[in-house]
Amino acid sequence: MERLTPRVGIGQIAPYRSSRVPPDGRPFIDLSLSHNALGPSTKAIAAYRKAALSLHRYPDYEHTLLRAAIGRRYDIATDHITCSNGSDEMIQLVAEAYAGPGDEVLFHQYGYRGFHKAARMTGATPVVAAERDLAVDIEALADLASERTKIVFLANPNNPTGSYVPAEQVQRLRADLPAHTLLVLDSAYADYVRRDNYDPGFGLVEEHDNVLMVRTFSKLHGLAGLRVGWAYGPPSIIETLDRIRDPYNVGLPAQAAAAAALGDPEHEAATLEHNDAWIAWLSHELRAIGVRVYPSVCNFLLIRVPPDPTMSVAAVCTHLRDRGILVKTLGEYGLADCLRITVGTEEENHALVDALREVLE
Ligand SMILES: Cc1ncc(COP(=O)(O)O)c(C=O)c1O
């Protein structure tokens, strides 16, 4: 009798492993996921609480109020927007809609791990372009685009490297891609970037029919626990994604809280101010104790632990864990000697630096 087996490609997806450990009752500092150190906006919390009274109702399958709020905030047309259960779902929906067995899905070496999973889930072949010094090499990506390439995923800025691709290079990449290839700009951390030559992709979406931008409420808006993402693209692509998504993919409290978060510019500004100050402080302090810190335009830092035969990265993590601090290991990205550290609160950042100083100095 033939054995039951999952579809081709599924076996190539590594099970998700978080660097988080199950809490054993002790309080711990979680810098392992790219959370917003300030938490959610109070307006989002109020909207979430109010939505609790309507939990017996299905959510609005058209995400009407949420799309209107996004449209107002970014001055874009609501029929060019759809929403998802976190941007991870959007990445998967795009792959399911446009790629399949025999197709190629192209992305960059240290690109966000969701790209690999999305490609494999559809049975398509993931193709990986080498990066240079932990930054995307646009030429390498363009060189690998072929007749079979259905999607190019570009995380800009990228997680876990924290690096970004200047606007002019993204434009060049798009111009080099065949018309049948969809360029997906994953701009999850766009709001954090303070660089004049960066562009999250609104203009590219408006000018071309093969560009889609994906965004999330998990970072700037601090709603990771609610799972809300969205995409901005040509109506034909948006309509395609709407066909295949679960009609009730974004829960009712999630839609309400996300829409309210967009009406809280003070929370956004406080988040950015906190991030700017503490990413600079962390970079300086970590460099001072001999850690290599890669420049980051996000809310986390990629650090390389100095080579030391007596102190492996695993030992560093164990030391941090013993002090109740969790950081992200990056073996799955082939960056076994690196760690990703998210900007925390003032107290958490000090605790991290003190603990690393103890173990490394
Ligand atoms: C680059 C990038 N894209 C997408 C996501 C998915 O975010 P979410 O599913 O929480 O919206 C993440 C999460 O860390 C990310 O770093």
From TrEMBL:
Give the catalytic activity: L-histidinol phosphate + 2-oxoglutarate = 3-(imidazol-4-yl)-2-oxopropyl phosphate + L-glutamate
From its record, what is one biological process in GO terms? L-histidine biosynthetic process
State the SUPFAM superfamilies in the record.
PLP-dependent transferases
Report whether Amino-acid biosynthesis shows up as a keyword of the record.
Answer: yes
What molecular function terms (GO) are annotated for this protein?
histidinol-phosphate transaminase activity; pyridoxal phosphate binding
Q: Does the keyword Transferase apply?
A: yes
InterPro entries linked to this entry: Aminotransferase_I/II_large, HisP_aminotrans, HistidinolP_aminotransfase, PyrdxlP-dep_Trfase, PyrdxlP-dep_Trfase_major, PyrdxlP-dep_Trfase_small
**Residue numbers carrying N6-(pyridoxal phosphate)lysine:** K219
EC number(s)?
2.6.1.9
Instruction: Give the UniProt keywords, A-Z.
Output: Amino-acid biosynthesis, Aminotransferase, Histidine biosynthesis, Pyridoxal phosphate, Transferase
Cofactor(s) needed by this chain: pyridoxal 5'-phosphate
Which top class of enzyme applies to this chain? transferase
Residues in Aminotransferase class I/classII large domain copies: 28-356
Q: Which family does it belong to?
A: Belongs to the class-II pyridoxal-phosphate-dependent aminotransferase family. Histidinol-phosphate aminotransferase subfamily.
HAMAP family of this UniProt entry? HisC_aminotrans_2 (MF_01023)
Q: What is this protein called?
A: Histidinol-phosphate aminotransferase
* Originating species: Skermanella aerolata
Organism lineage reads as:
Bacteria, Pseudomonadati, Pseudomonadota, Alphaproteobacteria, Rhodospirillales
Q: Which gene encodes it?
A: hisC_1
